[in-house]
Amino acid sequence: MRTLWRYCLAGLLILIPAWATLLILSALFSTVTRVIGDLPGQIGVKATPILGALFFILLVLSVGVLATHVGGKQILAAAEHWIQRIPLVRSIYLTIKGMTDLFQFRSRFGRSTVVAFPFPRDGVWALGFVMGAAPNSIQVEPSVNLLMVFVPTAIHPFTGYLAFVPEPQVRPLNLLPEDAMKMEFSAGFYKPVEGWLGAPKDLA
Question: What percent of the chain has pLDDT over 70?
């Protein structure tokens, strides 16, 4: 029964973001197509599905260009701040944004080591991703190497804390980064396969 539940949950974690993305893209494409449909009477352009697709691609590329430049980032940050001030819209936006952020996961944390360590105090443990060694200016104790560990927060796992942790306190886990993010994103409902609390096979 637990195995069946784990399979169902894993399927939902894949289907829900994919379905939400499909609905959003479909709505955007339909909106662009309707806008294109008003052009014939204005500028003499014949509305076709191909033309709608081209305008949609142009819209996506334009927003992408805007999001990768400093001025555009400031505009988008201001827009997000305004959206987050609206209670209901904020909840929907942050949830969907968390889903879309999962698509950027491999480029951010795909090669990180998943670890457990005491956080935010002794006796309480948290999952984290080792991002590398801390800068030399922070290595205040010569006998102990400090690691930079990113601690994501549920339900939007790409926000969180950057902790500087002594290497002896870090325990590598036999857990793929994708599975760790599923645990964070589902607030602990996703259950990895047995044995994930042990050391990785290459360290065992």
Answer: 65
Query: Are 9 and 75 found together in one domain?
Result: yes
Backbone angles phi, psi at 110, to 5 degrees: -60, -30
Residue 148 sits in a domain whose CATH number is: 2.30.30
Question: Is residue 175 assigned to a domain?
Answer: yes
pTM (global) more than 0.70:
no
Cα–Cα distances in angstroms (integers) from residue 141 to residues 134, 165, 168, in the given order = 12, 12, 13
Query: Which stretches in the chain have pLDDT values below 70?
Result: 1-18, 21, 35-49, 51-52, 67-68, 70, 72-73, 89, 91-92, 94-110, 154-158, 201-204
Residue 77 Cα to chain centre, angstroms: 17
Phi and psi, residue 121, nearest 5°: -155, 170
